[in-house]
Amino acid sequence: MTNENFIKLSRIYEQSEKMRISLQGKKLDKMKSQALENPEQFWAEQAKSLSWFKHWDKVLDSSHPPFYKWFVGGVLNASVNCLDRHIDSDFKNKVAIIWEGENKESRSFTYSQLYGSVNKLANALKNLGVTKGDRVTIYLPMVPELPIAMLACARIGAVHTVVFSGFSGQALSDRVNDSNSKVVITADGGFRRGKLIELKKVVDDAIPFSPSVEHVVVLKRASNNIKMSPKCVWWHDIIEDALPYCAPENVESTHPLYILYTSGTTGKPKGVVHSTGGYLTYLYATAKWVFDFTTKDIFFCTADIGWVTGHSYIVYAPLMHGATQIMYEGAPDYPRPDRYWDIVEKHGATILYTTPTALRMYLKFGDSIPNSFELSSLRLLGTVGEPINPEVWMWYFKTIGKENCPIVDTWWQTETGGVMISSCSGIEMVPMKPGSGTFSLPGIDAVVVDENGKPTAADKKGYLAIRKPWPGMLMTLWKDDEKYQDTYWRKFVNNVYFTGDYALCDTDGYLWLLGRSDDVLKIAGHRLGTAELESAFVSHPAIAEAAVTSRPDEKKGESIIAFLVLRTEFVSESGQQLRNELVSHIKETVGSIATPGEIYFVGKLPKTRSGKIMRRLLKSISSGSSTIGDVSTLEDARSIEEVRQVYDDLHRAVG
Ligand code: PRX
Fold it and tell me: From 330, 580, 621, 642, which residue has the greatest number of CB atoms within 10 Å?
């Protein structure tokens, strides 16, 4: 179903006494107008919720837009905000992280235990020569040592750059090299669907091409056989002699807390840089507004920490709030399609924050599985990462939430740091519309605009843009200020942030997010760039040219379709065997999340004179459109006849 269709299908969910929904949204409106009238005062108020060694001199320095600086002169430390502030309170022995293994093994860490582990590792990293500002790549499976490693870096002012453990060698070494990491923290192996993932082996293959790496710290997780080279040290060895307390580094508010690589429209992943003070302020405030965190909450965010949702809503926001966090190691359907429900029941989760992809999978298995679990501990449901269709929304609301739990459909991005559009259960719920994110959060000036940056009329599709800076925003792209400006700030005039998403605002002012307008794909909620995938295909000796697009997919939201031009000497081999080989090649170079759904060998790709692939055309072919559409509007296109020929060729290939 198209996004437009599901908007028609949707309806305002009836007010329910139990959910205390207010039609007016008065409290929310008041907060929003205060924030827009005096943003600096508003954000300064929010920043006061953090622990600062020194308060800021200036809330916002906008002297060099779009290089906005928040809380300039302020000094703090992220690990102090997540740990030390609780250690000195009643929370000392409160459980911070409940970890659930794929094999149902469980471990838990109190705030005090977490504090102890973070301090030791921080000292161990210092002993390895890591100092403030150094980059540390973390390539670990979903085990508690992953947040421990992140917080240990933050404690000593090192900049962590977590690489999703599902990524393969090439993706890892690109990120290690771009960030010039001094240390890589990994594990011997991890588990996924009961299978051993040999992470250390991937690191071994990647590191010879990474001269900046001085040490590889290895966590013993799977006890598989590995090779320890002279650069390698065991995690358990380096913490043995490390002192139990590490004084937190005083870092400026604008000191980078982390770099997280994400896909964009070029072949090279972008290193999104987040600050310390602005990012944490934004996360603290928005987590309260959206999830209404209380210290009693047991929060279950099902994301992997390799992506931004895990950074913000497994590590930093819940820990700053002193919540108890559930962290799950594995797949939602392994060994059976009931793992999330089992975990909710076992640990009494109060908030579940997950993805439409996972929900679509569970829905397929029917109601009896979730109905066989006790889910009454839940008070709030959340969704993130891709548009949710109203049928899935209704199923989530009725079958999982038993019509007692509001749903927060949270729109945001790696670049935004935290949630930007959502209902705010911690301020006041407005009537929900299945499939709509509702409104932007206080302080977020979101608008839907046309190609020229002018606000669109109600119900008219346009681009989502943000007109004011916000504290959680990225500071820049690592080592690429120019690309930062180009990608986000030059589409429209006057320093308006371009999100890359299509959206519309309906007549009630509700925002509907309608997917990416650029060359970014969302496969099972994971962000992948078409250009990145194309260069991975072309790195195979048989491939001369590649064009990647997607088609809507019931399970994964979108599925990858590749049109490939073979090198002449391989044309005779265009069979299933080569297809299989290419699938393995993509899994090895990018990771299994990038497994193509369909591969077509074609004679030519539709391109403009300047060599740009005509993506709109590919999209219309992959989604089964039988008409070529209006090619005359394709800027700088070759002659329509030539495009038509390529189109027919592609169409024949798809069949
Ligand atoms: O297209 C939007 C989609 O995910 C993109 C951001 O991806 P990433 O940086 O990987 O961060 C994902 C987790 C925050 C956005 O540009 N997206 C995210 N949340 C939603 C969404 N699309 C529709 N509805 C959402 N709730």
Answer: 621
